Amino acid sequence: MKSVIFRALIFLVILGCSTNEFQYKGEKQEARSKQEKICLLAINKVDSTLLEKLSTDLEKIFGQKIKVSQISLDLEFAYNPERKQYYSSAILEKLRNAGSEVGERVLGLVDVDLYVPDLNFVFGEADVVEKMAVISTKRLRQEYYGLPKDEELLLDRTIKESVHELGHTYGLEHCPDSNCVMYFSNSLQDTDFKSSSFCESCKRKLMLVKRLED
Length: 214
Ligand code: ZN
Ligand code: ZN
Known about the structure:
214 residues; alpha/beta; Collagenase (Catalytic Domain); five-stranded mixed beta sheet; three-stranded mixed beta sheet; 39% helix; globular; binds zinc ion
């Protein structure tokens, strides 16, 4: 029974990435099949304006085609009732099974509080080997801290965390430069302080990996 559910979920993820595409405008509609290197997978409710802006920015930053898909996925399997949080590695594990079908990289987007065992929470997690990552918008929202909604700030933070986790999937490690997007964010202040760009050193490493992959 478990494996039937599991297969159904994998199918759902693959289906999400292959057919239920986000609609691009104008010239972006043209043939994208083989050039799609990053699949931005919105898991459950993610604002479509945020998704569109995020994909446009990621496309510019990584110089790769981004395919956006939206799927429904019951995240109960990753829920820890004691912590009232979701285990991000378990979510990654699910995405891992869809990876080879959908292109080289998958970035999952969720809106639930994520954790890994040794940390209070994580903004996201990446699997370098499988080139999979997941990030959450939950703690990037001002409302989470009892503050008024700020869509611009949410987008800015989501871009930084997305670029950071995708950076890991290109083999980039944490960077000591607090302005670099690969700097480890221990808090939201760190995220707000750093830029969404790679420092010169990280940029060089990224270019090298991309050249090897092409
Ligand atoms: Zn990191
Ligand atoms: Zn750097």
